[in-house]
Amino acid sequence: MGAKIGVLAVQGDFLEHLRFLQRMGVETREIRLPQQLEGIDGIIIPGGESTTICRLMDIYGIREPLKRRIRSGTAAWGTCAGMIVLATRLTNDRPMPMGLMNIVVTRNAFGRQVDSFETDIEVAGLGTDAFRAVFIRAPIVQSVGDGVEVLAKLDDGTPVAVKQGNMLGTSFHPELTDDTRIHELFLGMAEASSKKR
Ligand code: GLN
């Protein structure tokens, strides 16, 4: 049996993640309420607007239960706004992130001229073929702390894919491409976390 993946479905591009996983034949679940976390091996926090995602997580009462689950080993992947939500610290006043991943993040960091762009990057562990990375009002990882592995960087050295134990963060949106490699990487993390439990 493969891993069962939940996608936080309060705001943002959760449908794109769900469809992507379903095309891969993965069992998925939309997550809004704490009880829906039961039995999942991994959770994806999608791109969108991190302030809204955090506000809705608090309204649905899912912030603390989700935090406990990720701390206890359930795999978690934040894409773009989702990575902001996972971070320990932001250089912005809002939102209050979950404080799980040892990274400092700045929102909307590429400036207005380059609001959205695509570029080919090399991602550690995914082979030599470049990954087409789609950035949309993307955050920048300013610094990484202990235990965080940088999987991909832009040419100027900015980290855009980071991993810390059972957690993965990407500044870009693999769910908007047809390259399944980062989803596969995450599925491997979810399977490993399910075996440990
Ligand atoms: N700009 C958004 C934020 O700060 C993130 C954008 C995205 O997820 N594509 O939350």
Mean pLDDT: 95
> How many beta-strand segments?
12
Q: Name every ligand kind in the structure.
A: glutamine
Termini gap? 15 Å
Helix tally? 5
What oligomeric arrangement do these chains adopt? single chain
Helical content, roughly?
Answer: 25-40%
Any idea how many domains?
A: 1
Which CATH-level-2 architecture?
3-Layer(aba) Sandwich
Secondary-structure element order, N to C: EHEEHHEHEEEEEEEEH
Describe this structure in words.
- This protein has 197 residues and is α/β, with parallel strands linked by helices.
- It has a single domain, classed as 3-Layer(aba) Sandwich (Rossmann fold), CATH 3.40.50.880.
- It has five helices and twelve strands.
- It has helices at residues 14-23, 50-60, 63-71, 81-86, 181-196, and strands at residues 4-8, 27-31, 42-45, 75-79, 87-90, 101-106, 116-121, 131-136, 140-144, 149-153, 159-164, 167-170.
- The strands form three sheets. The protein has a seven-stranded mixed beta sheet. A three-stranded mixed beta sheet has the order 5-6-9.
- Helix 1 (14-23) links the parallel strand 1 (4-8) and strand 2 (27-31).
- The structure holds glutamine.
- Glutamine is lined by residues 47-50, 80-81, 84, 107-108, 136-137.
Brief digest:
This protein is α/β, with parallel strands linked by helices and 197 residues long. The protein has helices at 14-23, 50-60, 63-71, 81-86, 181-196; strands spanning 4-8, 27-31, 42-45, 75-79, 87-90, 101-106, 116-121, 131-136, 140-144, 149-153, 159-164, 167-170.
